[in-house]
């Protein structure tokens, strides 16, 4: 603020501060090298510099709070999430450079900062024209409910003026409807074209940054870490500084009461990448963790399947070209290519390979298993042959145990935190009383739960199921051989199984009905359903998503045969 | 896509509730407590649209757990109930009442009385009027406890009078309790409902103080007012009262008539049949036969020797008089397909003979008449009886043989 040099580019004296503490010229956005210590350590962000420098930010209100903007809150959330990821082993570049820059870019593009006239400015001008009458005294002012339901409507500046001025107040009683300055405005205006920030979107930011850096964390893993509590998401607002009072409409923005779903985060990531006009992401090559060959190896281990299957997954990957750099690397804004779900893709490849070798029609795989069992009984040299039946029993047992644990965990989630939430000052005391009662009851019944102490957060691990070769009970199948299901033809190893059944003959139009195919459990063999269920558990997604990828792979794999069939059919009809 | 599988607060709590339910059903109190601990934060959510909200759930579930859990004390239980009373003003009196029930189950009569008195004095704006029914119940139960105190004083008084001295203080107290009890008990039984315990106590009070008219009126209202739900006990109480008062057979019979209609298997049916059999009116005797046959339709009566002797007596009587054989035919018509297997199998013959000779005698008589002398039951029992040379069995055999042609007419 006391920086009075003229700007090198435009010769104006009109300075603001960037996040990194550098001065930038507000007229021409020229960033200087001159840095300045961040004086106000209460706030991590100085993105609302323009309003700060106007001196309108009031530090002390009656309740010790101060003005803050919604995007400042999100910035804090992202910071916390990045820190958590760093603690999990992600490189520090993510937090300090990649995520930061993505966020700044977003703020700029959505006109919330770093641009000529941030959207929040309208509040300032409007409050100037606002009359000094109280909100409640005017019966024509729209009620809060109506206001929220009007979020879809587009309004011109005039109507926006009347709405905004009635609800958002920069002066004393802002806390009636939201602790933040622009909470109501945030929710109200149709921000679709500007990609309004939401809590699930913070995870999209994280995923985007991880993808950019090609870190070895898949989206399903990221989401699992969130649910397990290693990455702040639920109740992250309790780490906001004391002065940032959260109430009213802020709750709708920051207090989530559901876990984000893979599809949701995935789609938003791509929307975001396009919105930010990002260039082609760094290449995903075959030495990357996210490459199907790598992920297949990981999932094969986790699914307790023989290592030998990896040769087959690599063959399939190669055959249909899904290991190519251009296929795997994200090109934002390219609407023609289908976006790659690395984890789901790898799982689907494994499913296809299992179908190739074992058919999975509820008959053949058990037959093969019987042969293998016979062979293993009579001949113990050269290591055991893989028996599908044994594998099924071992894996199913563990899976059932883990699934039961997961289901119980889901029923025992605690969604609230110590920080009491209230929508308005009116029900603050009621909310506090309720909170106190909840704590009392938790104590009373917690004591009666016996010695069952809620386990501490388990250490984050990449593997949910683990199998050790040291176990003498033969419950680890990694080293088992596939000899029993393979045969040699013309010097090449092929499957003994001559057949294959397609999950679907015709793929749906994903854009129209949301899926490539429609998975209904009863229409498919139990073994197929089991295998889908296994990966569905590991990736924490619905089996239908894996089924979609399986269909996609099959159609690529059997492309020629299908094409021939269709051609033949049309010839017949003529 | 709609993401219905998305896990959110509501679904998570629904799942939590079903785990609690399972644990409760399997009496796993610790596990139920564990999940309830996770459920209680639902209180902070607005469930105004749900049929049963979290606060009611927590009250009911918490009560169950605290009542049965081995490590839970009465002190903790009471503390919990007090908290629950503050949770929902619309349920205040209900919670109070249930708390009182638990105290009574635990034998804490004084505490129960205190709680009832406290609840009686509760006022809360328009809620007082809305919860009028619960208030009446609370007053009624306090009346009941007053009756209980009266009863204790009465017993003390009787003891003392036996010992030969009177105790004025005790008598005064007793009358005091009577007044308090009578007022409240009278109020509750005005409202249509099932008030067996209140009615009994009130009638007991009235009888003691000699107000038989009022007692009769109360019992009549309770039994015959159509606004009150059909209640077999009401008729039983009335019958017992009339019997105590030495009323005529006619009024006793009319009191039991409806009871027969509602509960044909009631134990009083034996008394009913006995009275009806002896009546001079033909219609009444006919009814008597119907009553005793109907009672024996029920499995619980299969081995009731008294019931069988009633039936046997009446059937024998009809045979000897040679009139009204068609009555037996009518009653037997709907039963001839299943009574033989139900009552008169060979297995039962053996068992009845082994366990209860008089039972088998009566049954054999009935079987012999209804199914003829060649039926399994009669043959076995009469053979055994004659072999053992027990009194009466020879007569039985002769009687049935003599009247055998009758069976043909009955079963035809």
Oligomeric composition of the shown chains = heterodimer
CATH class division of the domain at 126-245 in chain B: Mainly Alpha
Taking Cα atoms only, what radius of gyration of chain B do you get, to the nearest Å? Answer: 30 Å
CATH topology of the domain at 126-245 in chain B: Serine Threonine Protein Phosphatase 5, Tetratricopeptide repeat
What labels describe this entry?
A: 574 residues; mainly alpha; B: 412 residues
Written description of the protein model:
The complex is a heterodimer of chains A (574) and B (412). Chain A has 574 residues and is mainly alpha-helical. Chain A is 47% helix and 3% strand. Chain A has helices at 49-53, 70-87, 93-109, 121-129, 144-149, 157-167, 183-188, 199-212, 219-228, 249-254, 262-275, 292-302, 309-320, 325-328, 342-358, 364-378, 388-411, 428-447, 510-513, 526-539, 543-557, 559-573, and strands at 15-17, 22-25, 31-35, 486-489, 492-495. Chain A has a three-stranded antiparallel sheet. In chain A, strands 4-5 form a two-stranded antiparallel sheet. Chain A starts with 14 loop residues before the first strand and ends with a helix. Chain B is an all-alpha fold and 412 residues long. Chain B has a domain at 126-245: Serine Threonine Protein Phosphatase 5, Tetratricopeptide repeat (Alpha Horseshoe), CATH 1.25.40. Chain B has helices at 9-25, 29-39, 54-68, 74-87, 92-105, 109-120, 126-130, 132-163, 168-188, 196-208, 212-224, 232-244, 249-262, 269-277, 282-295, 305-321, 325-333, 339-343, 346-355, 357-371, 376-387, 393-402, 404-411. The longest helix of chain B has 32 residues, at 132-163. The radius of gyration of chain B is 30 Å and the shape is extended. The mean pLDDT of chain B is 90. The chains are: A mainly alpha (574), B mainly alpha (412). Chain A binds chain B through residues 257-259, 261, 263-264, 407-408, 410-416, 421, 431, 434-435, 437-438, 440-442, 444-450, 452, 514-515, 542, and chain B through 1, 3, 5-10, 12, 15-16, 18-19, 29-31, 33-38, 40-41, 43-44, 58, 62, 65-66, 69, 71-72, 76, 79-80, 83, 86-87.
